[in-house]
Fold:
Amino acid sequence: MTLIGLLWTVPLFPVAGFLLNGLLGARFFPKKAVWVIACGAVLLSFLVSLGAVVALRDVGSLTPSPGAAVDARAHRVTLTLGSWMPMGRSADGSELSVDWSFALDPLSAVMLLVVTGVGFLIHVYSIGYMGHEPHPVFARFFAYLNLFMAMMLTLVLGASLPVVFVGWEGVGLCSYLLIGFYYDRMFDEKTRMSCADAGRKAFITNRIGDVGFILGMLLLFVNAGTLDIQGILAKTGTLGPGVCTAAALLLFFGACGKSAQIPLYVWLPDAMAGPTPVSALIHAATMVTAGVYVTCRMAPLYLKSPGAMLAVAVVGALTALFAASIGLAQNDIKKVLAYSTVSQLGYMMLAAGVGAFSAAIFHLMTHAFFKALLFLAAGSVIHAMSGEQDIRKMGGLDRHIPWTHATFVIATLAIAGIPPLAGFFSKDEILWAAFNQRPLGLLLWLVGAGTAGLTAFYMWRLYVLVFRGEERFDDEVRHHLHESPRSMIVPLAVLAVLAIAGGWVGIPEVAGFRNLLAGYLAPVLGAGEEAARAAPHAPLFEVVMMIVSTVIAAFGLVLGWVFYERRPEARVRLAESARGLYRLMVNKYYVDELYGKIVLAPYYALCRAAAWFDQWVVDGVVNAAGYVTLATSYTSVGFDTYVVDGLVNLAGYIVRGFSWVFRKVQTGIVQTYATAMIFGIFVLVSAYLLARGH
Amino acid sequence: MPVPASHILVFSLLLFSVGVLGVLTRRNAIVILMSIELMMNAANINFIAFSQRLQNMVGQVFSVFTIAVAAGEVAVGLAVVLALFRNRDTVYVDEVHVMKG
Amino acid sequence: MAPEAVVFYVLASIALVSAVMVIWSRNVIHSAIYLVLTFFCVAAVYVLLRAEFVAVVQVLVYAGGILVLFLFAIMLVNLRDPLGSRLGVHATLSGIVGVSVVGMILYVYSTGRLARSLTLGPPTTGGGGNIQLLGDALYRDYLLPFEIASILLLVAMIGAIVLARQKY
Structure:
């Protein structure tokens, strides 16, 4: 079984790293040992994953063994490590037990490599980025990162929904821990939100989504009789359309929470409270894509329900457009990237919703490259700017931090969709698939293309404001301005290469290439995609669409260049003329305030009502029961005290009374006793004499 | 001896009763021990008197024993008084009432 | 009245008075002195009753041994309060009881035939006394009690030593 047999060690290395650094790191290890352990654990995971993925290519030659099932047709190897929840058999004889099992197939292989590869780069980057932190903070950071890696890998590899859910919740926990990493710092002065609050917001919002996930999971369990993913998918044919739709929508609601889709996206921008490597790793490259991954993983279920598919597509498209428009007006470098992430996740969901699952995974992968790069470059900028995040106070940085600048440009072009960079291919595939959707294809395409334009615009705006124009920072910052250390630059360079070349694995067939990634994923996703594909291939038209989307992206770029570099006064005029819309976008459409009003306020009211009910009605009933018991017990105690005890005490008092008298006799003085003795003799002799008749 | 035996017995009785009164009324343990010696002497007088009256040596033998017992009793009794004094700093029996109920 | 009778009554009177003084005296040393006087008188009475050996033993043991023991004890206990007798309610009650018992016994004597008929005979042996007879009785008939008495004295001695030791 070669390295596939060692698949179970993949999440275990980071667990070991977490335990070592978490328990001992702060106290016993030097900083160097801490990062060597943390990065080494992830590197080992990456190498084992790579070996396993290579071995998976010859899936046909693999021999099944106990605990390792091989499905050659789907290119899947499932390792069962042990029984987790043995629940016996259901009435109709199907196995209800849940095993702790990992599955490796092309889909999880792609995720595995992305997660461990990008994760390793970000770990390396963190060495430099967190290098100035005190030792315990440093160790804590790497411990959390490793725990996150372990949980993410569990999520990716899980072969049954509960195992996936463990990872799902685990990454949520790590996200919470890492967003609130600087729990004592203020994140947003305006709304008085601390970093800990931001972590809580992310955690609670995710919990709302998790309710959907759990309900979907249980619905599938009830109807399919198993929690094993492949078992469920094999039974989708026997499930009714209603069940399929409900389960798909519930799971999608969970994915909305994790992947920051409308209406649960609000946590992701605030998740930027975490350190920048965390934003790159968790809130751009890996965790937030888990929703997309699970949606693709459950693709056959979604395909059974056109309604659910449409909902996914529409929510994804709306999220993409909505978040991109908010991103236009943000002034915090990380918030711009955060909204961009939300927008790109919307793209992925759109792809999944139109049945282009491999395109979703493709975009997931390229996005992991260029968005991680953007975040890391942004982190490098922040690092250089002594912690400044407001892009209005930057500008002209290209001369000072050339490496960061170069990588940032590459990433910007990649996300904007300029060929031949990674973003172009994946985004174009999504747009093409959306266009072919029926009946909303054109609409979805327009939204997607518009979003692509907006993305190009705000990304170029960000680039210009940060790196070009005059320098808007003060001398204090300028004095400290420096290029980041090599441990940060090297990951940037590697990711830049990936952001350029990462898309080449998915060059569409029209250009005379083979779409390698789609081909690789075909054993898992191909059948579903064929089923979803409504229109036949029209190569010429596809090329036209490609050119159109490229032009749109280029137009966005040029517009950004014009407004922010060439003629800023035009931008001001535009902002003046559309002041209302601008205000709306700056304030993120007041969604947080809206949620505060329509969700939180009624919720608080409900809480207060529940508290009132609890205090007066529930507690009242309980207290009444208590009072009745109390009264009964008082009666009982009264009887016991005064009657039963009274009798007992009476006996005691009688004895005590006598003893009081007798005690007085016992003076302790021997002469008293002698007197009594002699008096006794006197009495006895007197009695004797009287009896004798004297 | 021309004295009636009853007078000797009365003498012995009076001596004895003085001893009894001493034991009953005095607080000082040493005086109480002395009173006990008086009572033993009274008993001895009785023994000797009856020995004389009955022309029998047993009474005298017994009075010798009594003297021996009295000697031992005084030795132990005074040792007890010494121990008492050492521990309780008193020889007054009414101040030693550990057995008081 | 025969001179012997006179001597007896005088001795008895002295013995009784000094016995009363033993328990009446406030000073324990005085009590001890009165006690030795009583012993001497009783010893003299023994002589009158032809018990010369017992009289000698009385003087040796009581006057010589026991009294010295008393004096040592008085010396050692270092009496802080020489005031002895305290005629409280208790002592009064005890006195009444004691006197009533004495009265009762006197009543018994006065009414009993025994007391009236009891007159003392002549001495058992003349001159040298009855030491011989006493020795015969003591070492022949009462040898075992005699030896037991010696053991008793030994035990008493050991007991006294143990009790009077400084620490136990």
